[in-house]
Every structure is written in C-alpha cells, then in structure tokens.
Amino acid sequence: MLNKNQIAKRIAKELKDGYYVNLGIGIPTLVANYIPEGVSVVLQSENGLLGMGPFPLEGEEDPDLINAGKQTITMLPGSSIFDSAMSFGMIRAGKVDLTVLGAMEVSDNGDIANWKIPGKMVKGMGGAMDLVASAKNIIVAMQHTNKAGESKLLKKCTLPITGVRCVKKVVTELGVFDITERGFELRELAPGVTIEEVKAKTEGRLFTDGDILEMQG
Amino acid sequence: MLNKNQIAKRIAKELKDGYYVNLGIGIPTLVANYIPEGVSVVLQSENGLLGMGPFPLEGEEDPDLINAGKQTITMLPGSSIFDSAMSFGMIRAGKVDLTVLGAMEVSDNGDIANWKIPGKMVKGMGGAMDLVASAKNIIVAMQHTNKAGESKLLKKCTLPITGVRCVKKVVTELGVFDITERGFELRELAPGVTIEEVKAKTEGRLFTDGDILEMQG
Amino acid sequence: MNKVVINAEAAVSDIFDGAVLMLGGFGLCGIPENCISALVKKNVRNLTCISNNAGVDDFGIGLMLKQKQVKKMISSYVGENAEFERQLLSGELEVELIPQGTLATRCMAAGYGMPAVFTPAGVGTEVAEGKEIRAFNFNGETKEYLMEYAFEADFAIVKAWKGDTLGNLIYKDTARNFNPLMAMAGKVTIAEVEILVPAGELDPNYIHTPGIYVHRIFCGENYEKRIEQRTVRKAV
Amino acid sequence: MNKVVINAEAAVSDIFDGAVLMLGGFGLCGIPENCISALVKKNVRNLTCISNNAGVDDFGIGLMLKQKQVKKMISSYVGENAEFERQLLSGELEVELIPQGTLATRCMAAGYGMPAVFTPAGVGTEVAEGKEIRAFNFNGETKEYLMEYAFEADFAIVKAWKGDTLGNLIYKDTARNFNPLMAMAGKVTIAEVEILVPAGELDPNYIHTPGIYVHRIFCGENYEKRIEQRTVRKAV
Q1: How far apart are CA B56 and CA B23, in angstroms?
Q2: Cα–Cα distance for residue pair B210/C6, rounded to 1 Å
Q3: Which of B78, B85, B96 sits opposite C211 (nearest CB)?
Q4: Which domains, ranges and CATH numbers included, belong to chain B?
Q5: Closest chain D residue to C136, measured at CA
Q6: CB-CB contact of D144 with D120 (8 Å)
Q7: Are A96 and A133 in contact (CB under 8 A)?
Q8: What's the pLDDT tens digit per position in B103-161?
Q9: Which residue in chain B has the smallest CA separation from D139?
C-alpha cells in the first residue's frame, strides 16, 4: 500500500518531456515534487499562469502571485501570465496535455464527482467542471475508499457529478487503473496488496487483462 | 455646395469630447484634420490601435505601424495596441462612439452598400460589415450622386448591401440628412444649394420638418 | 478626455441599491480593496455581485456580506467565508455557482460583444439544467456544449497595478485573473490602480485593458493585499 | 523542452499538399516573411490559406499565388493583387470573403476552445446566406446574430517581434493584428521572430502569446518589411 507521496510519485511517471500539466489541490499538487530526471514540463495554474515554480522562500511571498489554491508561489524562467478567460480557453482547446485531480468518487465509465456533497455546505466547483469537460487526459489521484471504508471506485457515482466519461486513469494507494469500455482495468498493484483486496474495495466493474505490474511509488 | 474637406469639417462638428471614433477610408479620414478646439477624441484603427496620430514625418515611417488603410501612421500618447479580435470585440460591444464611413449607396431606412459591385472584381468587405452591424452611431460621408449623376440616397439599395438599418446620418456636398422612420430628413443645406436641387438628386423618401440650417463646412 | 476621479468614494458615488456589480480578483488576489471599502461605507444594498470568490470574513467582499449588502453572489467558489455560509443556510443570501471558466468567458463575451458562448463545462451535471445543449464537431471530436449568455453588469470594479489618465490598465502577475475580463464588461467600469501615470507613460504594446473600456480611474491607497494561504518552502 | 528549429525550411518541412494554413499579418504588416519564402521554395500546393489579405503581386502571399500554390483563399480583403484577380476571374482560384471581425473571432474561437460564436456582422447581407441566424437580447437591444464556426487549421504560421525558446511571443505595434489569434488556432503553430531569447528573458506579464500555443519557433532573417502605403506628412 502506498502513501500519498508515493501515489504522487507514481503519477509523476506519466509526465512526458514537453507536457503542459495542470495539477489539482491535494495529492495532485505533490506530483510536482517527483518530476522525473530529464523530463521538462510546464505547470499551469488556472488562475492565469504557465510556468508555476515552487513555494517561495520565507519573506519572498508576493500577494500578487498565487496558485489556484490561493497559495503563494513563484514563477520559473519562461513563465507567462494571462487572464482567466485565456486560461480556460487553452484548457478547453485541449492545449493542456495532462490534468491530475482529486475526486470523491469515480465511476467505471469515467464519470467523476468531486465538488458537492448534498446536505453539506457547497463551496463551489471552481475550475473543476471546466477542467474535466475539456482535458484530453485526466488522471484521478485519490484514496481507494472513503473514511467509512466504502469504495470510491463505483458503478455509478452517488454524489452530484462534476463531469461525464472524462477520467482516463485512477491511481490509488492500492493500484493503478485504466478506465476502459469494460470498466476499471487493474494495471498495477501496490506492493503488499492482493487482487482480492482490490476486488473487495472496488464496487465498480473491475477486470484484469494480461500482466499486472508492481506499482512503483 | 461643399468640397470633400468641407464635408469632413462638417462631420467633425459631431465629435464630442471623450469620443472614441473610427474613421473609414476616403472623406472620413479627413475628419481627423478638423477636430474642434477643446474636443479630445481617440481614433480607433480596426487593425488594432486606439490613439492613432497623424502620418509620420518623412523618414519616420515604421512598417510595423499602419492604419486599416495600410498607410504608415503614428501613435499619440495614451495609445494602446491589441489584436484584431479585441478590436472588433470593442466595436461589437458598442464601445466606439462614432463611426464615419464612405458609401456607394444609402437607403432611406438606413441600409448601406459599400463593398461590392456585381460584375466588377470584388475586393472584399474588410471590416465594413462588422462596423456597420455593430456601431451605435454611424455617419456616412459621400457624394450625393454617382459619376453617372444618379442619386446615391435611395429608396432601396441596388447594390449588394453591407448592413441593414444602421446608418443614422448622411453628409454630402449638398446637405446633412438624418435617417428617420419617414426617410431622409433634410437638416442642413449647403451654401448655394436649393431644396429643389436636393429633391431632384434624392431618389429615396425626403422630407423637411422645421427649420433647415445652413451647413457649415 | 480625463477619466481620473479623486478617490474611491467619488468613483462609486452613483452605485445604487439593487445594482449588478462585477468585482475583479481571485481569492484576495487583485481585488479592488479601495472600492470595496467605499461600498461598505456607502452601505449600498441589495447588490448582485459577480465575482469568482466571496472574500473572507473580514476582508474583501466578506466586508460587504457582513453588512448584508449583498442579495446575490454569482461565483465559482465561495469556500473561505463563515458569514457567507451562515447567510446562505439561513436563506438571507442567494448564491449561483457556475464553473470558473464559464464565469470568465461570460464576462469576456460581454466585452467582445458576443451575446452567448458555448462551453463543455457542466454538460451532464446539474449546471446544465435548463440550458440549451448543442453538439458540435470541433477539435477532432463531436461533443456537447452548453450555451451560456454574456454577463451584463451595471458596474464593473477592477484593480490594476498601473493605469494612465485615459484609463489604460496593466495588471501584475496573477492579480490579473478576472480583472481585464470584467473591465470590458461593465456598463460603467471603475478601475483602481496602485500607480497612476499621465497618458503616454505606458508602452502601448503592453497595455492589458485599453482605456476605451474604462470610465473612471483613481489611484488607490493603503493596499493591504492580504495573503490567504501563505505557503513557503525551506531554503536548502 | 525546447521548441527552437533551425530555420524556416525546417519549420515548414512537414507542411503537406492540400494543407489548411493560417498566415498572420494585416496587409504586409506582420507577415511571416521567412516561412512564406520557405513555402515558395518547397512549392507545396493546393493550399487553403486563411489570411486577412492576399499580399501584393511580388510579396507576401502573392509569391505563393504566383506559383499557383494556393487553391483557396479565405480573407476579408484581397484588393492589392493583380495576379490574384486574374486567377480568381479565370476560376483557377477559389476565394471566400468574410468580414474581418468574423475572421478574427473565428480564429480566436479555435484557440479558446469555442466551437462557434455569434456576430451581427453580415446579417441581412449575402454573407448570411445558409447561416444560422439567431436573435439575442443583449447590450440593451434585441438584435440578430449569425452563428459562425471556429476555424481549424493544420498549421498556423505567425510572425512575432520577440520570442523565447519556450515559444512565448511578443508582437510589436500593429504588426500584432491577427498573429496572436492564429497562433492559438493551429494544430501546429509555427512562429518566426526577429529576436529569439532564452526562456526567462521576457517579462511574463507582457507576453502576448503563451508558449503553450506554439510548437516551433525560429529566428527569422533578412526581414524586408515592405510598406504598402508609405504616407507621410510635411514637417510644419
């Protein structure tokens, strides 16, 4: 079973040189810490920046420079600033190569729910609906089950959905899953995790086809 | 009867302090030479400039700085440069206060034809269709009759039209005409011109209502 | 032509009860602090506020919420505000949540004279309820889009870094965000700037909002520029 | 990540017969001179060219027309070209004339992922024939608009003033025109620049085209920058 940082590290292996990447809040943010050697990517922050760098050093925070999570950040050489319409314009136009998001639920046809829990205060979808409706390549990074131990990989989302048939891959502490016509295809298994455990914790259609690799965190 | 410069000078009296103005090619361009004292306007060039200044001095021409007629120009203090989409965006949004255009024909309901003569090589509408479809306030500056002596103020345009019901005022060498529900209302008469002459040279509905002023070139 | 007004009070003096306002900024970054203070002082009420966020309890639009000046918020994310939550749950406040890109694009549409735009955001979700859905073949695939209308606002209130007396504006870093879009969309657009210069001092090539969109401008003061999530890394 | 190619020949090497190209520029201002020369040399044919103008007889797209490389021009104004006129009248060349603002907006729509836009330009004229017309209440009036589709191009070829190795672009004065719009709209976007600098030398606040839209960039040479209408005033 992998921890959050290992999940992020596994996802980072999906990055290819030259990719433009949008990382959501939570585990996805950690992906930036594990960009493989020799791979150069540009991070987009949907509030209007390409070329997001690490958090600033103490004392170097600039209130005019934040990311989509409202955290103080820095810019790397070659950055560009633009307004929110152009930011979502490039997202809609499919110019962002990879989007990594957290989720509350994912269904076996790629629907995602990550913005609203009925009965709880709704904070808003922010840019999530735009991202999931537009990105060509969406990876969800999340825990396999919720706090009650229930599967988050479902036949059908129970929560209000954020987007339909958009998720391509799910990475959890248990494994790596491609979303296919036939449901979740288990591709990699985390060290120490059995297929039986994955089966028990996956409510949606799950199948394997060919070799299952060991998931490298 | 007024000459081209006097027509331009008369139109310049329509300028109000603070106006953003788009001047077409031909007589409209001359309007810039007669901006009244104390009136400050900003000229838009639809290829992407607000704050167009006069032609450059010999030797100061910059190939990167032209107007919509492809002539070398200058910028005044406070200018701004933008792309063609924003340029026509501000036109469509009604931010340009006054547009002055030439025309081949105007009808008494405000239709304008100024882009195409069947049987002749068609050069294109350029920005004319965008301008006439969007501007709140369009003045046409033109000769009252064509080379064959036929009226250009018509009941109905005979040439392919550029836009419908858009012209608000027509200024010719003979007079100033508002376009109203009842057709061309003669408001001002050029020195030495009689109402009879205007009537004879106007094919569209023409009427007068109240005082007719002398047109000041 | 001179669009300069003396201060925020003068700039917002004719904003009326029941007005529809756009307020620039993302979180607390790039918000029109001076105008918000003036609106609080003026205590104008029943406002509809189009703004990506709703401030925090004691800063930004939160200050107007605290005084119950806001009837309706149109935002993409309103997370950081307890008073907002209280008013919403008690029914005192209406809220319309819309996707962030849709919000941005609907502002831009107004400034570009486009009455409606198409976006895939929200297709298949509750955001699509009651909206016209249309499939287009575009960008290599056939996909459904929602038709979304341009926003229209009585007043757009934005914050820029630099501006000139003709209303030309330049924003700094991610404080740009929604500001240039809203600047284009107001029937009346009010800009507050940190640095106000005479026309001619800004390079025409680097102006983000041409002055034609801006009706009033003033040099703001005492910017607090509060940071919502101060996050730093350790020096290695 | 380095988007730099060695020269124009390398940049256009995979442009194929029958491709749809966008070419930036307004008149002869801001046209991609180096790429046009390379296309002439390559003699690729049956091209569809989306460009506001068609050059003059011996410069700009006129050079490609002379070699009969262009099957179809999509432009708003094609006035200054005798060879163009000859080919058009003889039926060798197809031309589609569309309003300038519509052309610009259809390019932008592609770059912004919007499959269609609405514009009033051409309503009631022959431009509206066969197009969907729709009335909207917007900006204080009810008015008809045409629905126009986003342009899609195999290659967009633009000219900028400065660029960096990540493809970020800055344009100069009115040589900006259609260039940033087309830069956003190409499946492959090629930029030629007068000055090419390492990533990090351009101020992120003043970049007109973010590098995400640009696939190849090179430093052009021997810019002629021909003036179409040299117009001067007398010193007083």
Answers
A1: 18
A2: 44
A3: B78
A4: 4-35+97-214 (3.40.1080.10)
A5: D115
A6: yes
A7: no
A8: 999 999 999 999 999 988 889 999 999 999 998 899 999 999 999 999 999 999 999 99
A9: B93
Q: Which of D115, D138, D176 is opposite residue C136, by nearest beta carbon?
A: D115
Catalytic residue among B14, B46, B105, B185: B46
Residue C83: which pLDDT band, with cuts at 50, 70 and 90?
confident
Domains and CATH numbers, chain D: 8-100+151-219 (3.40.1080.10), 116-149 (no CATH)
Q: Which residue is listed with tokens 């831009």? A: C108
Per-residue pLDDT at C151 exceeds 90: yes
Any idea how long chain A is?
217
Supply the pLDDT for residue B17: 96
Kindly list the distances between the CA atom of residue A63 and the CA atoms of B125, C64, C101, in Å, as whole numbers in the listed order.
Answer: 48, 22, 23
Inter-chain residue contact A61 with C232, CB threshold 8 Å: yes
B46 flagged as catalytic: yes
pLDDT value of residue A75: 98
Residue D128 pLDDT more than 80? yes
For chain A, strand residue ranges (E) read: 20-23, 42-45, 49-52, 75-81, 98-101, 105-107, 112-113, 138-141, 153-154, 167-171, 175-180, 183-189, 206-207, 213-214
Q: What does the mean pLDDT of chain C come to?
A: 96
Give which of B122, B116, B197 is closest to B153, Cα–Cα: B197
* DSSP symbol at B145: B
Confidence bin at D76 (pLDDT 50/70/90):
very high
Tokens of D7: 């020269």
In angstroms, the Cα distances linking B70 to A195, D174, D230 are: 70, 10, 8
Picking from B55, B79, B83 by the largest number of D CB atoms within 10 A of its own CB, the best residue to mutate is: B83
Cα angle: D202, vertex D203, D207; to 5 degrees = 80
H-helix segments, A15-160: 27-30, 84-92, 128-134
Nearest-Cα distance to chain D for B100, in Å, is 17
d(CA D108, CA D183): 9
- Give the tens place of pLDDT for each residue, A27-72: 999 999 999 999 999 999 999 999 999 999 999 999 999 999 999 9
